[in-house]
Amino acid sequence: MTVNLELIKLDMDEICISNINRQIHALTSTIGKFKIQELEKRLLDINPDCSVTLLLDFINSDNALDMLESLDQEITICVDAIDQKYEKAALIAACSQLAIPIITCGSSSGRTDPTFVTYNDLTKVTNDRLLFGCRKILRQQYHFRKGPKPFQKNTHKVPKWNVLAVFSMEQVTNFSEEQSSSKSSSFRRCDNGFLGTACFVTGTFGFVAASQVVSMIVKDELLTPIHPSPQMNDTLRIQDNMGSKI
Description:
246 residues; alpha/beta; Rossmann fold; 2 domains; 7 helices; 33% helix
């Protein structure tokens, strides 16, 4: 069986020294270069027939919907590895409106045991502050159905959003709310944060996400995010219009 692989990579981040411990295209010789351009070289060296489209940009609350709508290719599955909750929520909301299946990844910071990495519907995620924050924004700003609140026992059945999330059940030690808080920004700093990141954990996140992508395609069981309400359309459009005026 022949599989025509087409990948669209969207990022504007540069490789820095802190990436070398966990990213295959991050080398001493590639520091300062754009990640997606170096990754494209790696992919084509493995499979020259692979079709790779590069979008040198960041997803944010203003452009997420327009960015997806502007693509000529039909997206089979979107894999989200954004590490900022507002941008992550904007991408999930846009995929929901456009009926694009999406797999989102939670935080690997501070985790050291890859056997705790698992997956579930985003409404069922526990022990992940990044996904907690993203979920709260989706409920409050994009009118997704109400889900469980962080650190509270869920006493009612929560309707699924059909957004698959990869996350770790491992408890993070020496963790404070003040240290974990960060402002929403599409700009990245060249560090791993105070918790650090282990390659054997981040790699597991990627492999779990990839396994679900392959499984959904092979089984023809693509999960289409549940469109929450007509109000979300207005929210996304208002943000897009505001962004276009800047």
